[in-house]
Amino acid sequence: MKFLLVFDFDHTIIDENSDTWIVKCAPERKLPNGLRNSYQPGHWTEYMGRVFVYLGDNGVKEDEMKRTMTTIPFTAGMIDLLGFIGENKELFDCIIVSDSNTVFIDWILKAADFHKVFDEVFTNPAAFSSTGYLTVQHFHAHHCAKCPKNLCKRKVLKEFLDKQLERGVSYTQIVYIGDGGNDLCPVMFLKKNDIAMPRQGYTLEKKISQLAQSLSPVQCSVLVWSSAIDIMSYLKLLIKK
Known about the structure:
Rossmann fold, Pase_PHOSPHO-typ, PHOP2 phosphatase, metal ion binding, magnesium
């Protein structure tokens, strides 16, 4: 009996968007209008690439970025929840699927000593170049029309489950915890016995309820959370069953 917990990162594990938080490192803590207005829907990763070039051009170094990123607050109750999962790792496999990047997530999890809670992190690969600039790449290529072109979370989840099955690991239930529009695609992949946990008042919750209103609801159960303590309460019930 093993459960799979799938977490988004921005506005789920942390209470902010890591990509917009990094702007605190910019001169006057803001980006020039031309750069800000250069974002095109579905092309966030390319936009962040330009932001990182701007920061590099303005002499923002790795250690300053790291200091800034590790001040991001965790979502209410999340430290307790991750502690609880860490104590019960024999029951829970735990992954992150996020449109952030490897450098930011690694910094934040290691600073809070939570990196061991997660078995795998699926996010856009990032690294510092020889000139000290942060660079970011697309996580993968996919053919899903619903998702941004760098990341389809459904594809990630499906490939992870297939790989686990090959290793002889199958899950009693998948619990998907997220907040954003790009979390809807994997939620629609979940089965009747699984559970989606959208964050209250965020896009994912709104999209799930729109589907229910148009009589094409998701197959899985839905439980809304506002504090990670709500998630922990549910997991405690699960392991008592």
